[in-house]
Amino acid sequence: MIHQLVSLKHLYDRIVALVERLLDRWFLGLAARFVFAAVLLPYYWNSAMTKFDGFLSISDSAYYQIALPAVDAAGGDVSAVARFPWGLMVIFGTYGETILPILVVLGLFTRIAATGMIGFILVQSLTDILVHKVDAATIGALFDRFPDSVILDQRLLWIFPLLYLAVKGAGFLSLDKILCTLWTRRFA
């Protein structure tokens, strides 16, 4: 009986190791990027497009969305907003919201882009809480019986696939892998 259990355990270990190798090689990175593309890419792309006036020209709307306290302090005159730190924050926020999601989906510089998106989501959440003063129900609470708060619950779930990508990378089916292969062939 013990011999059979040990044999069953060895079989289980071999199957799990095979599945982990196969999934870790290509599926999980691709799945994390697919989830991000399906759920968050349209959200971030739409949000980013509200911050541009024409091609690569940042609109006044970006200042109202990102640097509202500075715009209010300037009497609503965006041109009077200090370039440092507010203008810099608007520029980095707007271009980050545009470029980082595309890099994540393509699997290009994935670890850096995913880490940047995690930081972006954290700053976005803090901005919603501290600047836009969202209510307690919107902020929510962790470990409560309500899984639908916009900030703590949803954004924690947003961060998880990005955390996987930041730690493990985009996987076998990505531009990172293609570039790595080309680099290795060229300089090996």
How are the elements arranged and paired?
Blueprint: H1 2-39, H2 41-49, H3 60-66, H4 68-73, H5 83-106, H6 110-130, H7 136-139, H8 150-168, H9 175-187
Q: Any overview of this molecule?
A:
Keywords: Membrane, Transmembrane, Transmembrane helix. The chain crosses the membrane at residues 26-45. This is DoxX family protein. The chain has 188 residues and is mainly α. The protein has one domain (2-187). It contains nine helices and no strands. It has helices spanning 2-39, 41-49, 60-66, 68-73, 83-106, 110-130, 136-139, 150-168, 175-187. Helix 1 packs across helix 5 and helix 5 (83-106) packs across helix 6 (110-130). The longest helix is centred in the N-terminal third of the chain and has 38 residues, at 2-39. The chain is flat, with a radius of gyration of 22 Å. The model has no long low-confidence stretch (mean pLDDT 94).
Could you list some keywords that capture this structure?
DoxX family protein; mainly alpha; 9 helices; membrane; 188 residues
Counted by DSSP, the helix tally is 9
Alpha carbon gap, first and last residue: 53 Å
* Overall tally of structural domains: 1
**Given the C-alpha coordinates, what overall shape results?**
flat
Keywords: Membrane, Transmembrane, Transmembrane helix
Organism: Rhizobium glycinendophyticum
Transmembrane segments: 26-45
Protein name: DoxX family protein
